[in-house]
Amino acid sequence: MTEVTKRILVTGGTGLVGRAIEKVVADGEGRPDEEWIFVSSRDADLTSSSETKALFERHKPTHVIHLAAMVGGLFKNIRSNLDFWRTNIHINDNVLHSAHESGVQKVVSCLSTCIFPDKTTYPIDETMIHNGPPHSSNFGYSYAKRMIDVQNRGYSEQHGRRFTAVIPTNVFGPHDNFNIEDGHVLPGLIHKVYLAKQSGSALTVWGTGKPRRQFIYSLDLARLFLWVLREYDEVEPIILSVGEEDEVSIREAAEAIAEAMEFRGELVFDTTKSDGQFKKTASNAKLRRYLPEFQFTPFRKAVKETCTWFNANYANARK
Membrane-spanning regions, if any (predicted)? Predict the structure, then answer.
């Protein structure tokens, strides 16, 4: 009988990435010496320092994957930048400080490519995070996420803590937020295609369809999270992404979804809606130095699997 030596607490454990990690662990990627604990906002209000501390005292983790955050799509960010800043700053500070105070051996937090400067050269890489202001549309969320990197360096320098972070590009997959108003672009489009197919109407895509994004399938990201937790020892963040050559336009993403959902209607682009940041092409060169053989799920295959899941779980997924 293998002794459990790692108790891994996953905050935001019922979200898109948390569910993907749970599935990958359950499907054979977990190890006998690991105990996995997935928690959500029902288990503790992480904006409360006392509730966060109590959560850590209850579970006594040795390792933490920190996914919990206030998140939303472009238009929710534009409306609520202050809320995104304050909520996420509280969550991150409470989680990292509780991890430090309770002697957690390693924390892996989740950042986002939106933290990078709006005015920059491409491809962006891990050295460029603090080179200038992020895009104005989601500055509250972006700056709050950037501060995790600052805190990680502080805990490392002052206390010798192994706190690090990953920077995924646009994540999608089963258990995503498919809310059309507040979700991210790809799950929102999947829901829109579903409704357009039901009503026999055209599919209206917000914006010009020209912005470009690198999309990473949540199950691929989950496998990479396990590698970072077990093997990656730098304090500096690492970008987890498909290659630059796999970047697609919003139009191409919409067409892939239409094909996966067998939607035969017209695609209409509402150019009165904001495009947000035109591109944020990220280099995965650092990841490839560590894992040159890692195989990403092809985009259209991942879209097809996500659409199949959405169709099968529509009653819950649309909320």
Answer: none
